[in-house]
Write the C-alpha cells for this entry.
Amino acid sequence: MAIAKLLSHLGLALRKGRPLVPASCGHRIVVADAQRRFVQIWLRTRGCRHDILNGGCTICNYWASTEPQADEMVAAMGAALDSLAFEPEMIVLSASGSFLDAWEIAPPARRRILALLRARCPKASVIIETHHNTVTPECIADCSEILGPRWTVEMGLESASRQVLRCCINKPLTPDGFLRTIEAIRMAPGLSSIANVALGAPFLSGEEIIADAVATVTWALGHGVDECVLFPMNLKPHTLTYWLHGQGLYRQPSLWVLADVLAALPAELLPRVNFAWHRVDRGQYSEWDEGIVAPMTCPNCYPRVMELLEQYLAGGSRGELAQALQRQQCPCRDQWNAAKHVDQPLGDRLLQGYERAAVTILGEDYWARHGAALREELQQLMEREGPPGLE
Ligand code: SF4
Ligand SMILES: [Zn+2]
C-alpha cells in the first residue's frame, strides 16, 4: 500500500491551491458539434470522490467545487439544454468525476436531471460518464426507467495492466472489477459500454505506451466492451504528470502516438475504436483550464494529421485511413520515433520519479520514513507482473 499512499499524498499536495469551479458556473457545454448533432454537457458537482479524498489519478484534474444543491443541479441542466443551438442526437453527460456516484449526485437529484433531459430530448442517445464501481444493477434499472433501456455507460479503464493502474496512474480499479461491471452491463438488454483508454501514462516509455494501449483495447473489446476511446495525454496543472513534466521526468507523447496505436490494432477492431482530446481547440477552455497542454505534432504536418484523424472519426474505411496515417512522414515524427525506446527499466524509472516527487513535494523526511517500503513493494510488483502490454 506504500505506493498508493505516496501517490495519494502527492495528489493531495499538488491539488492544494487549485481554484474551485465557482458556484455561478453550474454547467459547461464541453462539445457542441452541430454537424454530428453531438453535445457533451458537464455539470458542476463537488468533485470526484477519489480526487477529493485520495488525491485522484496522476493524470486527471476534473476540477472540484463546493457542493451544489439538487435544485441548482437541475437548474444547471435546464440552462445547458436552453443554450443548445440545435437538437442533439447524442448527449454525453459528465460531472466532475462520476455522474452515477451518489456521493457526487444524490439519486433523487440524478433522477430529476435525467427526467428533464429525457423530456426535452426524447429521442437523443444518452451516454453517462462514470467510474465503473458506481454502475450497479439497481442504478442501471433506475436510469433505464427514466431514459429507456438504450443508453450507454462510459467508464475510465485507462489500462488493463495492474502495474500501470497502480504504479503510474493510481486508479482505484482492477481489471477483474472492471470486468464484473461489464458483465452487469451486458445483463441489461439495450445498455452498452465504452471504455476510455489513456495514451501516455507517466513513467512509461513511448514503446510501452503504445504496447499498453494496444493490449488494453484488445483486452477490453475481447471481454465484452462495446467501444474503446483513446485519450492522448493532455497535461493538466495540479497533477503529478504535469509536475513530472516540469521536472523533465515525463515526456508528453506526440500526437503521432495515435497513428501508431491505430496502425497496430487489428483492422477489424477499428470500427469500435475512437479517440477524443486530440484537438488543441476542442472548445473546453475556461479560466480553471488555464495551462492545459494538448498533444501536438509540428505546425507543418498538423493540418494533414488532423484531417486524417477527423476522416477516421467520421467513419469511412478505417483500416485504410489508419494505414494512410501510418505512411505520413515528418521530421517531428522522426523525433518521436527516436525517443520511443528507453533503456532504463520501468522499475528504476518509477523509483527515481517517486523519490524526486516525495523529497521535493513531501519532504526528505517522508522518503526517509517510507522509501524502503516503497522500494520493496515496487520490486515485488515488477517481479510478479510482466511489462505493460505484455501480460
Ligand atoms: S480519472 Fe476518474 S477516478 Fe481518476 S481522478 Fe479523474 S475522475 Fe477521479
Ligand atoms: Zn511534423
